[in-house]
Structure formats: C-alpha cells, structure tokens
Amino acid sequence: MQDDRITKLGAVPRRDGSGRALDWVEARRLLDGLPSGGLNIAYEAVYRHVARGDGHRCALRFIDKRGRRSDLSYEALAGEVSRFANVLARLGVQPGDRVFGLAGRVPSLYVAALGTLAHRAVFCPLFSAFGPDPIAVRLKTGRGRVLVTSSKLYTKKVAAIRDRLPELEHVLVVDAGLAPEGTLSLAQLMQEAPEAYEIGPTDPEDPALLHFTSGTTGTPKGALHVHEAVVAHHVTGRDALDLRPGDVFWCTADPGWVTGTSYGIVAPLTCGVTMIVDEGEFDARRWYGCIASEHVAVWYTSPTAARMLMKAGAELAREYDLSSLRFIASVGEPLNPEVVRWSVDAFGMPIHDNWWQTETGGIMIANTIERDVKPGSMGRPLPGVEAAIVEREPDGRVRVVEEPGVEGELALRRGWPSMFRAYVDQPERYAKCFAGDWYLTGDLARVDEDGYFWFVGRTDDVIKSAGHLIGPFEVESALMEHPVVAEAAVIGKPDPVAGDIIKAFVTLRPGTEVSPELERDLMAFARKRLGPAVAPRQIDFATELPKTRSGKIMRRLLRARELGLPEGDTSTLETFT
Hints:
This protein is of the alpha/beta class. Helices cover 29% and strands 24% of the residues. α6 links the parallel β5 and β6 (170-173). The protein is globular. The two termini are 35 Å apart.
C-alpha cells in the first residue's frame, strides 16, 4: 500500500490538556446536564450557553438566496426555541410524539428542530426534494403528528396525500401571510406563544431524533436516537471537526439528512460556535465568497461538492481570501485521494475525510487535525470508539481480523452514546445489525499497520471478477487520478467467463472531447495503475452520474439501467443524464 501521507506541521494538543483519550464518561462531563438532572439536547445546544453568560454570542447566521444576512444570538435563539416548545404544548403534543420538518434551509426549521427537542418530542427531518410518495411513507412509518413545512411544499406535495395520514393532526406553515386550508400559520402561533419555557425531566434514554435512511435499497428504515446522543455529537464536534467556542462554522449539508442535523444543528451549537446557514444552492463562487466574507474557520462538506470545486479549478479558489480556514472535513461517501491532494494545492491544507452512518448518529472514524492524513483513508477511530474488521461465521458470530491489510466487514463495539436504539417497528431488522457486542455496518474496509481504516465498498457493491474481490472505490479513485476525469463510478457487469467484468462510467472536466482515443487512453491508464485483473474493461462517458440528494453515487441504479433491471426506489435521485 502506497503511503503518501500528508504530514501535519506541528500537532495541535487536545484542548482538555490531558493528552490522553477521553472515554464516554469523561465526555459526558463536558456537558452541563439539566439543572434538575437528566440530559436534553436542546438545553446543551442552546440554553446552557445563556445560563453561562454567553447568550450574547451569535449562534446562527442565516444567508438567504439573495445574500441578505440575519443573526440570532444564543439568547434570541433560546427565546424562539421556547416559543416553539410552547406552541407544541398548546397543540397538545406530548413527549415522545413525532414532529416532522419538511423545508429548506430557513430559520424556522432550525427553531422547530430545537423546540421539538426542548419539548421532549421526537424530531424527524425530511428532505424538501422528496416527492409525495416518499413523504407519505416516512410520515406514516414515523407516525408523524405534526409537520412543519412551507405553503408551497404543502400545496405541491402534502395536500394530496393528507388523507393517507390519519395520525397527522397539525401542519404548521412557516411562511408569512395566509396559511393554506387545513394548515396553521406558525408565525401567528409563535407570536402568541410565551418566550419562557422550562424543559421537563429528560432521561438520557428518552427518544429524541428519528432519521430515515435514504431508501436506495429496500424500504426506508427509521433509525431512532436518544437524548444521550448529544454526548457524542458534542465531543466529536470538538475532536473530529476541531470546533472551538467562537468559531465560525459552516456545514453545507441539508438539514433533511442526518449530517445536517447532527453537525448542521446539534454539534456546532453545543460547542458554542457561530453557525452559517446558507439558503442558496451550490455555486463555486458563492461558496468561496461565503467562506471569505464570513471568515469561516471550520468547513464541513461532501466529497461530491469537493469534486465539483476541483472541477472548477484551484485557480478560482485562489481568487478569494480563504485564510480564515483552519480545518476542512468531508463526509457522505469516500473521499478520493486526488481530491485530498488537490485541496492542499487549492487551500493549503488537506480535506479530512471521516466516516459514520445514519445508525451511528455521529462521527466514528476520522482524520483529525492532530494526525497525519493518508489520502484515501477515512482515518482512525475516535476516542471511545472501538472499531474492527470482522468476518462472519456460519453460526452467526463474528471473528475479529487481527492482521493488517485484510479486507472484511467494518464493525463497532456497541455502547457509544449516539448509537441508534431501534428501527421503528422493525425489531428483527434491528437485531440483524448486531452479532454479540458488535454492530455490523455493512461496509467493507481494511485497516493498515498504523491503525488507519480504508473503505472498500458496501457488502453489496463488491465485484467478484475472475476470483478477485474488487472494491469499486479503489477503481474509481484510480480513474480520477487521470487529469481529464471529474467523477467516476464502476459496477460489475455479468460475463460468462469472469463472472463479472468492471464497467466504468465517467464524467469529464470542461473542455474535454469524447473520442475513441480518450477511451483507450483511460483504459491504458487504469490498467497501468490497477493491473489487468482490476482495471475496467468497458468505459461509458456520461454528463452526470446518478446521485442521491445527499451526494452518494447510486451504483445500484447504474447497474439496473445497464442490465435492464427494475430501478427500485428513485425518490432520492438527484440527476442522471
């Protein structure tokens, strides 16, 4: 394995001064807890900063589509969160009831999420680009009692399915003005609600967050998390993302996904930062301008976005003063080594990849600011996280693989605070995720002699060709090393001799012309880098690759279209040409 690590110039000491790993008991002590006892996410994210005398600090800075800015201090945010909690109380919402959010990156959605948690109800985010059927499935599965949305989204996507949702009692629209028939004006309810609210007794194991998987395979699963998850949110924000009180932090993830909740709402606020929320969509100049004008110190984005920025060129990045940046991280899919090296050229620092899942609730494995970065690696387990490579035995148990470099399934020893506690109404599906004390992630990986973990692929993504097990990510990363390739995805295509052969789909950088010569050049390039057993035997050129709204390339959909198979659930599909 090639070791082209990017060495950190001077390790940054841990800010607790101990120089030793924190366990979860120590991590819990970093939080305050409710004055009357217990643990509540909203209190740790908002109210405790006011109680400590830091209420004047800016908590949220909203930038609308036109670039207009508005700030909410922690004290002002606490007032809005209290009003929303009182709105729920007035509507008869009880602790444990489910409140769904279906809106874009607007202030009311963030207030609703925190107000729901303060009221001890369960918040469930939905992505605003979902169609009516995916919305209906999730609301019905999650037994949503309240929906917070916009008038436009309600009229376009919810009104027609309302009769399929008998448990949905209240729809609160965030727009100013007249609410559509069958809905209530959230602005009016907030105006009438008191600005003071006392959070009731909250057990750390009380349910808090419900996150649905993307539904790219099978039916959507509702992963339930509890208030104790805030312990992991806070310490991973501090240690994996290097968040420090007073930092300006920007997480580009939409709040409709777990990243946009765990690290777009909860973690940064518990760390006392100023959080940027940009309503606008991706635009390279807008993004660079935001970092420069807002003096962003820590930036958390997706590999897809990073590749799009790389496609625009490092020269564009150099047009802006990005000197405020101290740390850049990414999540959502593996980060190609070429992107990490490009980041050093463009920003003067690597993008630090990390790994976690909807089920883990928070970052488990990361390239942290203290350690060298190995481009292509997802890093090392964080303090308190025990990760291993395992092999499943016929009797249902697993064997931990001790040898470095051996591929197997990534597993985590159960017990971390943000571990999901259930799949809603699917206990058997939940039980299958565990073997004894190990949570089986469904991801294939390997660990090297230095303890760095390397993603290989999903268990159902791995391609077997002529006796070789081939991880798509390895092939995709090699193709992206070619100077004209912007993105790549590979699948296994049935072959009567080899079982499967590797077929690649690539998008090209602007100005590159498709030609038979280019295809041959890419083939030769891949064979040279990977060897004939692993390199693609076929290459197709595409304008775009199919992705979920969270940025993951849908290899399943590529395979289905290539082989003429049923496409399954495409509700999370972004684009494909």
